[in-house]
Design goal:
The protein is mainly α. It is built from 3 helices and no strands. Helix 1 packs antiparallel against helix 2, helix 1 crosses helix 3 and helix 2 packs antiparallel against helix 3.
């Protein structure tokens, strides 16, 4: 019984913060008016196809520059 619960909770503990981080960076991208619209389109495509990896790149290259 405890093994089956840990097999459910452990993946949730890993994936939930990643999903929240992805939404946080996607929300910031949507509200970022400093990025030209064509570059924003490229970032959105990267978010769709590369998911969390693109969010990490966005955090490093865009978000940290502004904050």
């Amino acid at each position: 019984m405890t093994q089956s619960i840990s097999m459910i909770i452990l993946p949730l503990l890993i994936t939930l913060p990643l999903i929240v981080f992805w939404f946080w960076m996607a929300w910031d991208l949507g509200g970022n008016n400093r990025i030209p619209s064509n570059e924003k389109t490229y970032w959105m495509l990267a978010f769709l196809f590369m998911n969390v990896f693109a969010a990490v790149f966005y955090y490093v290259y865009e978000y940290r520059r502004r904050h």
